[in-house]
Amino acid sequence: MLGIQETSSQIGKSSGSGSGSGVPLQVRSQMRVGVICVINDDVAFDDFASPACNEAMNAAELQSEWKIATPVWDEAPSTSSGYRGPASPERSQHFNEDQKCLVWCLIAHKLNNLAHNSYRVSHYTPHEQEIKIEGVECPVPLNKIPIVERLNNLRINVFDYEENEVFPLYVFKRVDEDCVNLLLIANEETQHYCLIRNMSRLLGDLTKHKSKHHYCYRCPHRFAKDEILKEHLQYCNDHSPQHIKMPAKGENFIKFQNVHYQHPLPYVINADFESLIVKKLHTSGNTEIIARHAACGYAYVIIGPDGRSVKPISVYRGKNAVQHFMENILKEKEELAAKLTSIVPIHMTPQDELDFRSATHCSICKKALKGDRVRDHDHQTGRYRAALHSSCNLKLRLSKKIPVVFHNLKNYDGHLIMQEIVKLKDYEISVVPTTMEKYVTFSLSKRYHKFKVSLNFVDSF
């Protein structure tokens, strides 16, 4: 808001937050005066305005013909649903109330009109018929953007602005440099689409480094070079748009909640294979095979809830050791599944009953016990264990997983087992891999089984 009309100057004040109303005043004089700028800093404004006002008052006392004319215009921010352009003496009304802001943005992107008054709708109304929105009501909701894309063969990205942060709301699935980037400004009553001509400028205040950056529209993460962005997109395009939101004050603490993982597993199987190196001459392409590892035996032991072996150690030495192992271990699984799905009723001694009544805190969450205390017992033996909250006791459900522990499973034994597991047709296999050939763990469960008890092969490391 600057201006000189012959010998005139405008004085005004605007708050840094933009919430106040700044009213520039026109001051007339017979003498030449300077121009006073409106600045968004109260302290700086006072530093400039106070001397000027004092000078004006002194001049008035000296009969200098200074006088205050009418206010030029009001710069109060608009809260209406339509679009209002930059403040000026000639403009004080809304420019666009037709709710077609998305249409005008798409035309503006197509025409690439960079004129200083490109915000005028009159530039785009002659081209309105070029944008097809049949069956889509204006203002266009976010879930109708794919329809607009399909009708007009366009690729559109929509971003939101909240708490000084820009984040994606809708991003076109395929990477394309010719995407239309829109900023959605909305409140409880209405919404407005704005065309983003330069994403780097919009997000440039995130860092003090003012050179151009390249942004991923899904994160949005910034990169200094386009080559780094393209490498990043190979992974990021597989995921939906993301928005990093920090927890509110008072909720920014994480505490342990998976109390059921504190419950010891009732059964654990410890196993190991033994192998021989068998010489074998074979050439395939550029690879010459001179020997192979052949399993010649195995041993396993089942540890029960009391920490002792359920039965004697099973040992086998002979041909087809892996196949023999899988046949026996699956039989063991069925026997253990029957035990896991049967519950032994609780048996309490007089001392157990006394301990239950005198308990003051839950042994799981460590909080005080009130009227919701229950008796927790071992479902396999029936022995009383502790007094718990009802909610804590429900979380301590018996796990249906039976771990099979191997020493160096990932690097050795897992390769032997996998060659045999793939032959099982009635079982589901799930893996946690580190590479295409190495697995941290893998599980085996029978399809359509009533109780869904699984064998989890894990490494002892």
Structure, explained:
This protein is α+β, with helices and mostly antiparallel strands and 461 residues long. Among the domains are: 100-237, no CATH class; 262-342 and 400-459, no CATH class. The protein has helices at residues 42-61, 101-111, 145-152, 199-202, 226-236, 321-340, 350-358, 390-395, 409-421; strands spanning 8-11, 25-28, 67-71, 156-162, 165-170, 180-186, 191-195, 214-215, 222-223, 268-284, 287-303, 314-317, 373-377, 384-389, 401-406, 427-433, 439-446, 454-459. The chain has a 7-stranded mixed beta sheet with strand order 12-11-10-15-18-17-16, covered by helices on one side. β8 and β9 (222-223) form a beta hairpin. The longest helix has 20 residues, at 42-61.
Strand content: 25-35%
Distance between the termini: 71 Å
Average pLDDT figure: 76
Number of E strands:
18
The biggest beta sheet is recorded as: 7 strands, mixed
* Backbone structural class: alpha+beta
The stretches of 5 or more residues where confidence is low (pLDDT under 50) are: 1-45, 70-82, 84-94
> Helical proportion?
10-25%
Strand adjacency order, main sheet: 12-11-10-15-18-17-16
Principal-axis shape equals extended
Oligomer: single chain
Radius of gyration: 37 Å
Specify the number of helices. 9
The helix/strand series, from N terminus to C terminus, equals EEHEHHEEEEHEEHEEEHHEEHEHEEE
